[in-house]
Design goal:
This protein has 17 helices and 50 strands. The chain has a 32-stranded mixed sheet that branches. A five-stranded antiparallel sheet has the order 8-7-9-10-11, with no helix packed on it. Strand 10 and strand 11 (about 310) form a beta hairpin. The protein has about 850 residues and is α/β, with parallel strands linked by helices. The protein is elongated and about 120 Å long. It is about 20% helix and about 30% strand. The relative contact order is 0.06. Among the domains are: about 1-20 and about 55-220, no CATH class; about 220-340, no CATH class; about 550-570 and about 610-835; about 840-870.
């Protein structure tokens, strides 16, 4: 057994380690969420006091102290007294609560903070834990309950003591928690901290089991048998309705519906009714009495075979889903705790939650003007000028589908693992306007995360930042199934049941293609539009192997700081009729990709190869501003200037440049690079770093510029198609020696056999050559000779360059050469503009100007002649 001092030390150490916000209890009321708005350019002042973000409000006691029971006789006694009617597990498992196991430290810390009103000096709850591996059991909590004659009738001893209603003096321990897991799969107890997007992989998540059983221990349980409800009802039972009628101690399941049985998910129509959960579904409407309740604003529930109540929500921690990708309670579950009588503040963890869904014809419209800062959750006073430090918070949660959500209010948080906006629905549109900022600067925090669904659209004109350690600005990631990815794995277009196949319950083809729901038969995000600023310390944009993102449109003045990384990949089946995607772990089966039924069974493979790519479109704008970005509403923007400081890596990424100038300070490693009537500057980091593409397509007016004053290598692995009206710019030193290298490892197609290569040199060298035409001619001859030596093995050649390019900036100079020397001419900004023929209106304007000048001269001569000599 772990003593009190040891556990307290563990918890406090864990708290200090993970920078989780804690507060000691007092008698003040919780502050309500404010609608204070901050100016976009002032947002970073919320983070100006770095010391303040390190201050942790540490409670002096943990809410409860776990101890693991392994003795057979003690286990038998605990089940006999606290779990009447439940058999003792026949197979014991292994469980350890130690400082090296961060899962327990995290779970205890966050629950102690959430329920801190119930944490007092020298008072906590000793809770015995038993580990089991029986395959017919589940993780759950048990307790002794008060009978009908008691004030706390129906309550468990833990619940009543926590609420301080029927406190039991001198009691040694409370409740009993059974942690059940599959020994073939294993239990994931992280050395690191709990995440909102789970990372347990193929193992079962211990943190999920802890949060699940804790809910049961504090009152989320039901008093019923296989026939109906029994006396006394539990606190949870008093909030249940069936067919809009509250259940009673005499309610039978058959009273609800003829075919209703206790573990039916769909036939009994049980609903949970409470003021706080009702208000959540009623979009913040305050519910004053039960008569105000609307039957449509209620969460459905069902019971498992073991009698545990589950929410009929998709993928949430307390749901009955076979796939759960939540690492902590959502707001509905926290509001349920409040309805059960607990004085907790859900607004510390959630700013706005949208559970309702619109329809394709009548979409839900939301404009979130309230800010999410420290004033949402801190217990003592409003701090509207500080960022939130609460861990695992979600400022805006979009659970529903078919919603248009504008995030006008500022989000400022530095809590560990927090998320600015989380989207779990489908076909939502999230808008971050120019005046808004989402700043999530806590460790492992995320600005915007899309974790489930399909065909969502995100428009970012404002700022999204995640500058903490391991911070990610935009994350597209289903995460792990807390029940184990072996049991069920989901991602875009696929659902896989590996464990059922290994147990020979279903054939392999069925396990790889297991009833894929419609709401994941499409890209997780169909369109991401960026015209604002994106900053991520680890990633600016992260696309997990579970998620497909369609188009990323990066438009004029966009700034992206941080790596863009996509792990999404797929392959075509040997028979050429299907698409599959391999999972991150070789123990998992590959998943067969399923698309909408309208595409039929026989797929157009070339069409889907294009469809399954991620296209990053540079230098584009809308043809019709009133319509969304799409392939038929996208045109080149020659005035576009895009700045990307970070690597771009992904086997299925196509980087397509249509207009303007795009600066990439980092290397690229992707499928295809396409440049037309625009310039792409690539400034790879120093050292042995190569930029690699499978396909290079330099079309008319395209400029691939590698000039940065340093040596770098650009490799085309498969196909290169290069127009004679495009150019590749390479670094050279003063004597004309080329220091960059471009390699074509596959085929090179140059229609005229011409690959234009032009030099980039320093400002000082250009200045020197401007006064020495012969030296410049010698430089150019050496450069051309070396360029042709590189191209000779590809049966191509370069013409004499017409331009010199500055290595210090996006600018060049025209060059005119003769046998006497080369002369530097006008400034140019891009190759496209320098080689583009003058438009007709320029010729017309010149002709009209000449005519006007001639007419003016004639008039002037006549007047001068008549006045002077007449």
């Amino acid at each position: 057994m772990i003593d009190a001092k040891t556990v307290t030390a563990i918890v406090m150490c864990g708290l200090m380690y993970q920078h989780q916000a804690m507060a000691s209890s007092d008698s003040s009321t919780y502050p309500s969420q404010t609608s204070t708005n901050y100016q976009h350019h002032d947002i970073h002042r919320l983070f100006s006091d770095l010391k303040e973000s390190d201050k942790i409000f540490v409670s002096r006691n943990s809410l409860f102290r776990p101890y693991v029971v392994t003795d057979d006789d003690e286990i038998k006694e605990l089940f006999t007294v606290r779990a009447k009617g439940i058999k003792v597990p026949s197979k014991k498992g292994s469980l350890e609560f130690s400082p090296s196991k961060m899962t327990w430290v995290n779970a205890s810390s966050i629950l102690s903070f959430l329920f801190r009103r119930y944490v007092a000096d020298n008072q906590s709850f000793n809770v015995p834990f038993v580990a089991s591996t029986d395959n017919d059991r589940s993780s759950r909590a048990f307790d002794q309950h008060y009978n009908a004659s008691n004030l706390c009738a129906g309550m468990g001893y833990f619940e009543s003591s926590l609420k301080n209603i029927c406190a039991i003096n001198n009691r040694d321990s409370f409740g009993l928690v059974e942690i059940n897991y599959n020994p073939d799969i294993g239990l994931f107890s992280s050395k690191y901290r709990i995440r909102l997007i789970p990372e347990n992989g193929i193992k079962e998540s211990l943190s999920h089991k802890l949060f699940l059983t804790f809910a049961s221990l504090i009152g989320m349980y039901s008093s019923h048998n296989q026939v109906g409800f029994s006396s006394p009802l539990s606190t949870f039972d008093y909030h249940l309705t069936g067919n809009n009628t509250f259940v009673t101690e005499n309610t039978r399941f058959s009273d609800m519906q003829k075919n209703c049985v206790y573990d039916s998910i769909s036939t009994c129509h049980f609903k949970f009714v409470g003021e706080n959960t009702e208000s959540l579904l009623a979009n913040g409407k305050k519910i004053k009495s039960l008569s105000d309740f609307s039957s449509k604003n209620r969460f459905s529930i069902h019971f498992t075979k073991s009698g545990f109540p589950k929410f009929n929500l998709s993928n949430t921690l307390l749901s009955g889903s076979s796939y759960i990708n939540y690492g902590f309670y959502n707001q509905a579950e926290l509001e349920m705790f409040r309805d059960l009588g607990y004085n907790i503040n859900a607004s510390e963890f959630f700013g706005t939650s949208i559970y309702n869904s619109g329809t394709p014809e009548n979409r839900g419209i939301y404009d979130i003007t309230s800010s999410f800062t420290a004033s949402n959750g801190e217990f003592r006073t409003f701090k509207q000028d500080k960022a939130s430090i609460v861990p695992l918070s979600i400022a805006t949660h979009v659970y529903g589908s078919y919603n248009d959500v504008t995030q006008s209010g500022i989000i400022a948080s530095q809590g560990f693992g927090s998320i600015g906006i989380r989207i779990d629905g489908s076909r939502n549109r999230i808008i971050v306007p120019k005046s808004a900022s989402i700043i999530e600067n806590g460790e492992s925090a995320t600005g915007i995360a899309v974790t489930y669904g399909r065909n969502n659209i995100i428009d970012i004109s404002g700022e999204v930042e995640a500058n903490g350690v391991d911070g990610t600005a935009l994350r597209f990631d289903f995460g792990s199934n807390v029940l184990s990815d072996l049991k069920e794995f989901r991602g875009s277009y696929r659902r896989v049941r590996t464990y059922d196949y290994l147990q020979r319950k279903i054939p392999k083809d069925q396990a790889e293609s297991y009833n894929v729901p419609n709401n994941i038969r499409g890209p997780l995000v169909s369109t991401l539009n960026i015209s604002g600023k994106i900053t991520g310390r680890k990633y600016s944009i992260y696309i997990d192997d579970t998620a497909h993102v369609g188009d990323i449109n990066i438009t004029n003045k966009a700034k992206i700081y941080g790596d863009i990384v996509s792990k999404w990949n797929y392959y075509v089946s040997p028979d050429g009729n299907s698409f599959y995607s391999k999972a991150y772990n070789p123990k998992l089966l590959a998943g067969k990709l399923h698309f909408d039924a309208a595409y039929g069974d026989k797929l157009n493979v070339p069409f889907f190869i294009k469809k399954l790519a991620t296209n990053i479109n540079l230098g584009v704008k809308k043809k019709n501003k009133a319509k969304d970005f799409s392939s038929d509403n996208l045109i080149a923007d020659n005035k576009s200037h895009v700045e990307i400081k970070g690597n771009i890596i992904g086997k299925t990424i196509n980087l397509l440049s249509y207009g303007g100038v795009s600066d990439i300070v980092g290397l690229i490693n992707l499928n295809r690079l396409y440049i037309k009537d625009s310039s792409v500057f690539i400034d790879s980091p120093k050292g042995n770093h190569n930029s690699v593409v499978e396909i290079l397509d330099l079309s008319r007016g395209g400029q691939l510029d590698l000039t940065n004053g340093e040596s770098q290598t650009f490799i085309v692995k498969d196909k290169a198609s290069i127009s004679s009206k495009s150019v590749i710019c390479l670094d050279a030193v003063r004597d004309g020696t080329i220091i960059d290298d471009i390699k074509f490892e596959g085929s090179l197609f140059a229609p005229d056999g011409v690959v234009n290569i032009e030099p980039g040199i320093s400002y000082n060298d250009i200045k020197r050559f401007s006064s020495d035409p012969k030296a410049l001619l010698e430089f150019m001859n050496t450069f051309v000779r070396q360029a042709n030596q590189k191209l000779d093995k590809y049966q191509a050649y370069t013409k004499f360059p017409k331009h010199l390019w500055y290595t210090q900036g996006e600018m060049g100079r025209s060059v005119n050469c003769s046998p006497r020397g080369c002369y530097i001419g006008d400034f140019i900004n891009t190759y496209s503009n320098a080689t583009k023929p003058l438009p007709m209106w320029r010729y017309i304007l010149s002709i009209v100007g000449c005519i006007l000048m001639l007419a003016f001269s004639v008039v002037l001569v006549r007047k001068t002649g008549s006045g002077r000599y007449g």
